[in-house]
Specification:
transmembrane helix, disordered N terminus, membrane, ALA-interacting subunit, binds 2-acetamido-2-deoxy-beta-D-glucopyranose, 29% helix
């Protein structure tokens, strides 16, 4: 900038021109990979080599899971009932709701065998339902009266606080399952089925249920008033609300091997009302492997990513062999291919 320039410029103006530096000139050392056909094909092949075996092994692990899914909400009704009659049946405290189902084990099942209940069309993710709880109240007996977020299940008929308050606890699932194998009971272990962090930190070992499910409309299971919340694992599992309307929750573990073709009888207490909203109830019995329960999605996803990479790598390779081009040939640039056109607009 010379002194002549200076004299033409109003004194307040500031130069917009950036200072010269390698940063402003975009001249810093950088990784500028050249994607030659060789490197592209090699990268794609590497992806395929990693993803395809992972996909195959998780798919085969999923295939080895033995899973029995048994829908019982319709089978546990006395005959063909209309929708209204179903609701009437389940709401009547005097009807017999015991229901015996038998199924055959298709393949040998090694312990531990996980027992779940599966609900369909149950929106545990509804905004007002999810918020209808009070975590302070669950964790400490001092917070018994903190029931603000729990409406309409905050106070009982005598205006005493309900512990645990809120709709989630109120609607606790209350079907029970008792397994019998060749006329001797098959015990289900219901200990240590919830998250340890929930038992330790979220649900107090000195918080006991109070006024719970005692008055008003009964929404679900009752709780043992002499057992602290940290040991009520069915409640702890139920209160970890499901994100999707179709979900399963752990009921317990069977710690015995089941043989192929064995007949297992399960005596169900069909208490929970899913009939008024057309929900389905299923009992799921499943073994696990290193990927968890039956889930083909993971394996299929790995296989499709790996397969696509392999396919693209092979097609690039074939193209490269049939019609190779020199690298960085400027003859292929559009302004060289159509030299007579000034622009494309
Ligand atoms: C089970 O829950 C239903 C509501 O879904 C309720 O009407 C019924 O009284 C409960 N039964 C028992 C035995 O807890």
């Amino acid at each position: 900038m010379n002194s002549l320039d200076e004299s033409f410029r109003p004194s307040c103006a500031v130069s917009k021109k950036p200072k010269y530096s390698r940063f402003t000139q975009q001249d810093l050392p950088a990784c500028k990979p050249i994607l030659t056909p060789g490197t592209v094909i090699a990268i794609l092949l590497c992806i395929a080599v990693v993803f395809i075996p992972v996909g195959l092994s998780s798919l085969s692990a999923s295939k080895n899971v033995v899973e029995i899914v048994h829908r019982y909400d319709d089978a546990c009704l006395p005959g063909e009932l209309s929708d209204d009659e179903r609701v009437e049946f389940i709401q009547d405290a005097k009807t017999n709701k015991t229901c015996t189902r038998t199924f055959t084990v298709p393949k040998e099942m090694k312990q531990p065998i996980f027992v779940y209940y599966h609900l369909d069309n149950f929106y545990q993710n509804h905004r007002r339902y999810v918020k209808s709880r009070n975590d302070h109240q669950l964790s400490s007996p001092k917070n018994e009266f903190r029931t603000k977020s729990c409406e309409p299940e905050a106070l009982d008929d005598n205006n005493k606080p309900i512990v645990p308050c809120g709709l989630i606890a109120w609607s606790l699932f209350n079907d029970t399952f008792n397994f019998v194998r060749s006329s001797s009971p098959l015990p289900v272990n219901k200990k240590d089925i919830s998250w340890r962090s929930d038992r330790k930190n979220k649900f107090g070992s000195d918080v006991y249920p109070k006024n719970f499910q005692k008055s008003g409309f009964i929404g679900g299971a009752k709780l043992n008033d002499t057992m602290p919340l940290s040991e009520q694992e069915d409640l702890i599992i139920w209160m970890r609300t499901a994100a999707l309307p179709s979900f399963r929750k752990l009921y317990g573990k069977i710690e015995a091997d089941l043989q192929a073709d064995e007949k297992i009888t399960v005596v169900i207490q069909n208490n929970y009302n899913t009939y008024s909203f057309n929900g389905k109830k299923k009992l799921v019995i499943s073994t696990v492997t290193w990927i968890g329960g039956k889930n083909d999605f993971l394996g299929k996803t790995y296989l499709s990513v790996g397969g696509t990479s392999l396919f693209v790598a092979v097609s690039f390779g074939v193209l490269y062999l049939i019609r190779p081009r020199p690298l960085g040939d400027s003859a292929y640039l559009s302004w060289n291919r159509y030299p007579n056109l000034d622009s494309f607009d």
